Fold this protein.
Amino acid sequence: MTLELQSVEKIYEMNSVGVHALRGVSFGIDENEYVAIMGPSGSGKSTLMNIIGCLDVPTSGTYLLDGSDVGSLGEDQLAEIRNEKIGFVFQTFNLLGRSDVFHNVELPLIYAGMRPARRKKLAEEAIDRVGLADRMKHRPNELSGGQRQRVAIARALVNRPTILLADEPTGNLDSATGAEIMEVFDALHKEGNTILLVTHEDNIASHAHREIRLFDGQIASDSFESEAA
Amino acid sequence: MSRIHASVEAFRIAVAALRANKARGILTTLGIIIGIVAVVTTMTAANGLANSFRESVSVLGTDVLYVSRIPWMFQGRFFQFRNRPNLSLKDSEKLARQLGTGVAVNPTDDTRRPVKYLSEVIENATVIGTTHKHMLVSSAVPEYGRFLTEHDVEFKRHVCVIGTTMHERLFGPVDPINKKIKIGRADFRVIGVMEKQGSAGTFGGPDFDSQVFVPVTTFVREFGGLHRSFDFAVKAPSSVDVADFEYEVVGEMRKIRRLHPSEEDNFAINKMDSLVEAFNNVMGVVLMIGIAITGISLFVGGVGVMNIMFVSVTERTGEIGIRKAIGAKRRAILQQFLLESSMICLVGGAIGVALSFGVAAAIDRFLLPASVSLPIVIIALTVSIAVGVISGFIPAWRASRLNPIDALHYE
């Protein structure tokens, strides 16, 4: 099992009132799965995504990533895990505006402490993989929305992550460009990557092979379990 | 290994951030620039002052004691000393006899008189009555011509030896040897010109180069001697410890003065050391004031940098979030902002040092010999980096502690 959540709960303290964002969520994802997490806003999607992405830790329950418990790690250890095992793709691209495409993609490898020569090779491969080899020295503001998201995908791929986490990856794109981006994800899945999409759009979710629907901090349905049943 | 790469990245970010905000950075560093100019100028001026002091003091030598009526540094106790008996030329002869051969005792006194050659006049020139032993107690030698001899002193000859500045001002290009000049109302023949000795005159000390030396006997005859008190320069023989020698001189002087053991000395022993000590005290105060002014401007500059770093951290909260999300540790973020603030200050420091070269050149031209030395530059740049690290620390610490989720969603 690539990742496994067991009765994960998350409670936020807000003005001394506990907000129950996740109320006991359990599921596992295997290697090379293509999963969509769906649900209305306030259902706990973002919280779940943050926990899976090691940006946050559960209040209770366990989260195993590649077999090791990451729920009790400190901030710097979580940063290390994110660096090695997680590839993020955000709705708002989240690229560094002052840096060119190459440097944006190379950045995770810098924080991993990799040598420049090897960094260059891997970053160029990743950029080539998303079809932007001729845009290497361009800055994000010189690129279209679709191209920016491709850069973000290249950055997410460059460290060969255990899981690719995409949070509304087409949310800021028109439908044609969004479809192109989804083709990229489909192809990456075919190449053996494990992908987790967070979305509220059915047509995006339909690219995935498994749908987990959240409601009020709990799993309302999981297509994998219903198939199994 | 990974730290080195992270450092290179941090350096790159800092440079990019500075280039993106050039005007802001320069304005921010104004306080640092002023502070560093203050540091460098203070230290350079102090160095120059100390050097020119040392130069002029070295002429006199540290193995020479000066027996005088009044100590050089009497700090407000003048009335205590004013009734002491004078030291006469007779006393000087007695002291020389009692200390024995091998010890040079040179009586001197000075006065101020106008010195005139043809139509050129120097008002208020320092006239020094001395003897041929001046050469033994001082390192000064004539550049050409000769110094006073025993015969000049014995026969009260009207001859004189002038300093280089006096030579230039009175004679210009004319050879002064054997020319007649008027000192006060008396005629003197120039027999020599002293070597240039450098001047302590810039801070109120004697200007050795505009003095004129005459035989002390002639001096007494022409400028009055009955009510004068002479200074005796006494040079310790090289085989004797200066401190022991001082006791001996004190003992002999007490005999000459016929002092009872219960009476205090009614003369003073002056040494270069006491002059140096007094100078160092003054320098200490000057330096303290300089450091205080410098400290204040650097503090103000530091607060400015801290302020701008808070702005920088806030502006780049989103960037911090991205970096953290893809694996930057707290240390990497801390380093990034510390480097940025130190580089702002280093740029300020470098501008300050550059300006200081100009200020030092002006001081050198108009006040006293001064030049910016490498150690001072290194100190100034180190101080500016330190200010950067200190003032950048709190903003950088805050940046490093930001929650990645909050930072990512910061608008």
Remarks:
- The beta strands of chain B are 64-68, 104-117, 120-130, 142-145, 159-162, 180-183, 186-194, 211-215, 231-235, 268-271.
- The longest strand of chain B covers residues 104-117.
- Residues 151 and 157 of chain B are 8 Å apart (CA to CA).
- Chain B touches chain A through 26 residues (CB under 8 Å).
